[in-house]
Amino acid sequence: MMKLGRNDLCWCGSGLKYKKCHSSFDEKIEEYRLKGAIVPDRELLKTKEQIEGIKASAKINIEILDYVAEHIKAGVTTEEIDQWVYDITVKNGAIPAPLNYEGFPKSVCTSINNVVCHGIPSPDVVLKEGDIVNVDVSTILNGYFSDSSRMFCIGVVSPEKKRLVEVAKECIQVGLEQVKPWGFLGDMGQAIHEFAHKNGYTVVREIGGHGIGLEFHEEPWVSYVSRKGTEMLMVPGMVFTIEPMINMGGHEIYIDEEDDWTVYTEDGKPSAQWEVQVLVTEDGYEILAW
Ligand code: MF3
Ligand code: CO
Question: Is 221 in the pocket of ligand 1 (CB under 6 A)?
């Protein structure tokens, strides 16, 4: 990181002198670092222009999920959902981020019932009454990434599954309440796992959220089983996802040996996940994609 002079132009692109812009902000971060906190590199703090780019990408992500919400029902295959996602993305001049990402073969993840995440759409998988399904959409527009996911209940689902889906959504709200500058990601992680446990559920440990914006997955890795006051310091300009996977049974998971992607609950019980993409602002947070 280059050390700026007080009269140099600020690194954030504001056009102001450093001393009038981010100089005291950088000093504050440095104080936290000296006290032993994990602090974000400057590269993780998005400029105004980058935030505009991410928002434009997120707008498409939201449009796609709104379309899925209107059309998903029993009898639809996950392959059809993949086609919807691909078509709307491309119509908007964007690219589906999952497609060919580390070999992922489709444009979206569709994860049903005991599938925790990274389910691969297939013409053989037909949604049926009583299923709960996560549709996880990620978009690249002009090099800017967005990522969010929602749960859908197909027809009438059991009260147990319905409650799981609702509590998983409430976990997002509980987590968001902890997102503010000069707090720690662990504050959010602890609030989420305590809330999930209070409701009789467990939280997946091995898979978490991530920084996002200029890449699909940036620093930091975001855990939802972390402890208050630990993990990275939250600073205005950081963008990351909140996407806890909430299990009805035990937290243990395994990955499909054949496709190397699909993540299942070890005990075969259902799992639910919602995902939002948030920006840390001067006084709290802004949801970019949901
Ligand atoms: N949207 C998922 C995430 O939250 C993407 C997983 S990678 C994929 O990171 F290739 F499966 F899409
Ligand atoms: Co994500």
Answer: no
